[in-house]
Fold these 3 entries.
Entry 1:
Amino acid sequence: MPSSIPPRRRETIASFVSRTAAASHVDAATFASDKEASFQALIAGSSKAVDALKDFNCHIPSDVVEWSPSSDGVTGRQRLFRGHIFPSKVLQLSEMRGCPECLLRDLEDHADPKTSMAMRGHWLVPHVTLCLEHHHPIVPLWKESKPLLRFDSAPHLASLAPDIMAGKLTRESREPTGFETWLDDRLEGRDTGTWLDQFSLHAACNYCLMLGTSLLRHFTSAPSAVPDEEKWFIYDLGFMVARHGEEEIRKALNDLQGLPGGPHDGPRKIFPKMYDRLAYDYIDDPDYEAFRHILRTHMVETWPLNVGDELLGEPVVERRLHSVRTAARATGIDQRRLRKILAAEGVVPEDGLPDAWTVFNAKRAGSILKAASTLVTAKDFAEGIGATRSQFDLLVEGGVLTPRLPSVREAGTKAIWDPADGVRFLDSVFLGASPLRQAQHGWEHISKSAARLMVGPEVIIGAIQEKRIVRIGNHADFDGYAALYVYHDEVCSILSPEPSFNQSIEMFAKTVGIGQPVRMRRLVLNGHTPATWMMHPKLKKDQLFITPDDADAFHKRFYTPRTMAQAYGKSWQSMTATLRVAGIKAFSPDGEDYGSVYERKHVDATFQ
């Protein structure tokens, strides 16, 4: 290894090897291969690859190793960097970034562009946006999809040398933010004394970005549209709140609810980026559980969530809070009049938060609301349940909805519909519904599914209420009946006028919530639940089907998270958590993977 290659502060292994290879006039992959090492393994920080270079008298300085991502002791999808675990893909983005001032100083120290400039380890962390040494923003340098070419930095930097010396990559400097100082301290291994220090560094940085994006609502109506070069401000906006802990975060979440918009607009609008990330993107990542708990607790205490609504990816199975707005819709009473009634009873203050955010205990105020309830017109009733007039008429024609008074003539008024009946109807069809962010292939609005089958919506609704149809979706972009979606293939298999009520193993698996049909087939082939060989009506060959008797046998012996949630009216997430605490494991007597399938006797013994 040429003695003229001095290591740079915070330089990575990949950069050091690339510069050394350039001094020998070869690319990094060839250089590593000649030393019986792998450049790919060196990029990953494999200690075995580093040791392989030592056998050829190629020593990598300890500081270089310490500032390089390592694959030792972590899974293949993770990297250890400065004592912190990151997803490997986060540190291997196709775009390489750096500080042009650092690179210019490298050039001044050593004139050869091919071997002088080095890439620093902290530049790989996407949350790093400023060089604290020069107060210069971290800027894009090059983009390359292939890792071997991307991390062979010497030729890339050599080609950029003229632009670096000419100042073409130079940006306006700025002072470091509190977030940037905190992040650098964490990478240096210094204790900062903030509440965030207890969490995974990557998760804490992401949370600052999520919270900051939501807090941008104080400044702009389109917080998600802020360009990447302004992200440093968003990180710091979230950090300055989160650093103080849960109480300060809860206060900030409350303040967001004082801005234009209400719970009827959905949490994605009130908490942009933060809600979607915690509810979907990181739902299974334990590093974000504390942040999820804060938002979940806040929403439970301040949002008028109804049955069928979504709470961080979980369906709501019981209304706990009403707002003046939701209670007005449920009772058909004018909001202003209802607020006066509730204020007179001491349920809510006469003034204060807007009607949409003024919440109260739904059960405790039930008798007051019932006494104040009034009948409404068909038009108002249809609007209250989120149905068009034609959809409402079909529901009436099918007997799903009936007026509280027998007829307009006998009532002497058009107001013969009880809004409470509409609430009960929606509750009956949304129980156990899955939140839908968008209607992907196979999902149809219930009215369209009924039209395709040439049946009335009451047929599908009856099957939902009887729990024969269980794949129900609650579309996040709509409210009430407009949000009621069904999985059309399941509807066809259950209600199709064709004579067979038998289901393929794949369809039955989807119906009961077994995500991978191969697991259901494994249950059948291993003799744990029956299936019947029958002639496929279209393919004209024998195939295993689940007959109604087979389905009954399965349900008598097993629960899936979906079917147990339907049976007990609870969220499957809470039920499976209870089963774990009780030591009840998924069914696997022979060591086979059948997915989240539980024996019914154990589940019933736990919850009854």
Note: The radius of gyration is 31 Å.
Entry 2:
Amino acid sequence: MSRFQTFDDLADPARTAPRVAALRAELARRGIDGFVVPRSDEHQSEYVPPSAERLAWLTGFTGSAGAAVILADRAALFVDGRYTLQAPAQTDTGVITVVDSGETSAARWVEANLAEGAVLGYDPWLHTADAVARLERAAKAAGGRLERLSPNPIDVIWEDRPAPPKAPVRPHPEEYAGLSRGEKIARVREALAAEKLDALLISDPHALAWLFNLRGGDVAHTPLPLGYALVPREGPATLFLDPDKVTNEAGDAVGDVAAFRAPDALAPTLAEIARRGARIRVDRDTAARALSDVVRAAGAEPDVGVDPIGRMKAIKTDAEIVGARAAHVRDGAAVARFLAWFAATAPGGLTEIDVVEKLEACREETGALVDVSFPSIAGAGPNGAIVHYRVSRATNRALAAGELFLIDSGAQYRDGTTDITRTLPVGEPTPEMRDRYTRVLQGHLAVSRAVFPKGATGAQIDGFARAPLWRAGLDFDHGTGHGVGSFLSVHEGPQRIAKTGTTPLEPGMILSNEPGYYRTGAYGIRIENLILVERREIPGAEREMRGFETLTLAPYARDLVDRALLDAGEIAWIDAYHARVLETLAPLVDETTRGWLARACAPLG
């Protein structure tokens, strides 16, 4: 039985039509012709509490990114390439049209579908200033207009809406963080001074948690306290957190650098500072339009830009790097026990849920597991082709011989966050499966082995992972890698390996390396390790160079490798990696697992 994951199917397409009808009735009552429903909370977060799952409640779609636009006579749900299979299965496509956001954005759809003279509503707490500006331009181009709504009309019709979370907020030990709260605040103030700013409004709970060395539990699987903070260039900082959540330990730990106030004090405090003429940095990615409106109403202009904490948090401290390595060794031993069990048991009547529960149990046996870092993606056969598939009791599939099984999972330990994907054969794989797996592995290796100059971005690395697939006329519709936090979110910015990855990759950043291939209706393949950006010394180099250290420790599926496709350098890298996996993990596992591990890590060459 899973301690941290549920397999309830929350999506019911039959609920979509009556809920959309109720929303349309509420909008008509207010004289509004449409409404935009983003998949976000007041912090524009990817992971949100149940009380903020408005998009899922309305449409049935439970993915981590998306938006809906509901008009009087039509509606659309916008999802990216990860969810183009999942979304149509979760919503009523007779009421809501699923649209690939990579082909048509919500703003472009509004411009094409909003009637002339129509009023499109939005909740200013659920959109950034830039997002509202795009919608304003689209509505104007259609001959309509945008109007802010309060209260949110979904909150009015959502009768059994969960209460906002009140999980305890606790200190995060400095031995794991590597820097004190005072040291971090001093770095933020240096950044403010460099840009001639008077204060920073922190709207991203990840930034708040990192800066004040706090952790909470307001969001599933991510130890976040939801709240805000104001950091002036001079004087004490202020944390705006529900007082019911702040433990005595947290209050004592933070009391020397910041004061606590209730969340409803944020707007008047912000307005007071703005009236004094302060130049306030407002984060362009996470600050709600409503916060910028507060500053403007007080007679000032918000400085909408980058929260400097994002980059600070992304570059891990020495203590965080030590913790990440330790967490991956611990997690690697748990994953090895799981993989040995899987090899001996599958298919054996196993279902996807059986596998998820076993892997979680292996991690529980470490004695250090705080939570999983996200609900495990465990796709057997065709379910593996759904990129962010989440198994439920309704979709739970038995593993069958001749299929592939994709398992993407992670753990939260106090010293680090893990995320690993392995694709496993169940019985004898087909030649096509071996070909596709090996091409994905080649892309994964190309990133692992990459050497690049200082200043290079994830966008420049992304093509390395795709080239082996491109040569066969194939590709995948998601980024190659995302940033990863330190006992924080498994998805962290600003660093990423993707076409949109414009942030330079700097030593200390942790990212995932996870190319894939998905054949709809048949199988999915993804291989993922976490990697750490490091300095790379090259004799005679004329530029400062970078490379990656692989943190994740688990063997690849050798029965899926077509050795004929690999060159000598790729085979040598795999053999060296497997030797490291065996040497590191063998002393930490039981005899049965050790024997399996020795076979799984035997040289390919």
Note: The chain has three domains: 13-157, 170-309, 315-600.
Entry 3:
Amino acid sequence: MLSEKDKALSQEAVPADLRDRTLERWQSMPLAVRVILQTMSAAGALLAVVYIFGIVPFLDVTYYFLLMALYLPWVYLLLPAYKGEVRVGIFSYIPALAICGLTFFMAYMGRSLIFQTWVPVSHTWQLVVGAGIYILILDAARRAGGYIFLGIVLALSLYPIYAVYMPGMFWGPPTTLARTVAFNVFSGDAMLGVVTRVVGETIIGFLILAALLVATGAADFFLKLALALLGKARGGPAKVAVIASGFFGSLSGSIFSNVVGTGSVTIRAMKRSGFPGYYAGALEACASTGGMLMPPVMGAVAFIMADFTNTSYGVIVLAAIIPSALYYFGLYCHVDGYAAKHGIKGLPQIELPSVRKTLIDGWPFIIVLGFLIYALVFLRLERLAPFYASGLLIFLTFFKKELRITLSRIPNIIYEIGKMLSQTIGLLLPTSFILGGLMATGVAPVIASELVRMGGDSVIPVLAIGIAVCMVFGMLGMIVAAYLMLALTLAPALEQMAGLNTLAIHMFIAYYATLAAITPPIALAAFLASRISDSDPLLTSVHAARLGIVLYFIPIFFLFEPALILQGPLHLTAIWVTFNILAVVIIAGASEGRMMYLGRLKAWTRPILFAAGLCIGFPEWMSTVGGLAVTAGILALRGLAWQPDAAEDGPAPATPEPLADTQRG
């Protein structure tokens, strides 16, 4: 594991306003408050086990409100009410107590909510309770996602009120504020619908597993494993960053927390080895963004997608393997090309961990993740899989003294569970109000049919509209919101127009909403990384878009050839995966100016090869054959098109500073 000194140095790389202050706020609370919160967190985890395994049957809505009562107070206590609130104050304690009381009350009223009419409300007190919960969850949205997030959630959740004034397909029947608020809070099409169900029945198990993995040192293990495997390679620290950030992002489920958390380590290592700050920041942003799409533990969108499409989560895990592998392979090709051009060598063997020793130290993590994949894909356990994997992890740690979960570690594990769940709930619950705003008016199917009419015989205009919406919302960090909106409107339109594969459509939407995090001009992931790498934000975001270029085209490829997401014949999967691997090598080579295994490209060949690579990857035989012919023709012109690397034989950069002793084998 990383030493305390190394962790302290890593945190110093993070600007003060980007550091995670939740631990400081946690420690500022009185001991009694912390004990109560930890008890609530442990009770929530136990409640999830009881409900999901069916040990004690009770109503779904009762379970959902109990989870809110146990974890929503954490949002107000760990996240500040205003910028200057360093220690937890009255403006955090009051909403925490209020949301806890209101949601406990609604858990008690669960049977009445199911069997009586609460939309519209039949009593004034019902409206008061609903309005209180609505306002408090909006405050949670502000704390967790910022004022822009709050503004969009507020505007869309109240859409039914002003829909009557909207033109054309955006028109909706008139309604009242009271009915809108009640619908948002009490309806199964809004807060008690798909988002809350996914959090309470699926995501919670994976977050508990992630907390256990973090507490037992899995993050450090996979960082050391990546160092051991790739640290010696050309541009080793950057290749390590690609692998490590991909894994961490898969566990955390958050692009931005991954950039801040792992970027403080990986960006520093890349800069030390010779990569410029803008390149290190851009690469970290790309690697962290891809973590949301990396199996087996993907971001919240994947879980919501499974529920929305009525698809097994194991099927989604399988579908994501090829696209995510192609994306990370593209990042690897970029790094290799840059390192070759600039003579950036790997780290000396003496500074790297031993592969054998690393595997011996962390074999329980390998077994647990292997079991998780097996349970999801083959046993189809889905909701139960992360709980079984958690139990297996606890059991296996008894065989490794360094990893063993002792009594002294339990409070930290419970804290991590509470922190992860509260942050997830704080960001996802408000998006259910967006869903409620669209469902209450009934405009979603109207928009879908209007998109079909607008598109006519061409699917391109409709795809362009969907991509634009994904970009706008994704740039604001509202990935789940973008997915929910387009899953209701764009997805049905595409199915009606072109008969495209349902899962391919939904993954297409999720990918474009995600990649907005690295797309200028508001590339939030790249901007965050630039703060850590001390580089120009716009330059960093432009390079992030260039390095992640593969992610812009893969969704289009699998939309028109579902075999790339294992939704077609296996022989087509094999054919198009082969062509796409070749396409990624060519696209990355053209982007970086150096073709893997060949050498540097002349300037005039780069745009031609880039276009040829896109043609090869697009699943249509004429374009693929044409792209292959152009590529072969250019590569045949050895003296005119490319030349061997001069940097291969050039001087190595200055010897990098040694890594911490604890990272050595």
Note: The first helix runs from residue 4 to 12.
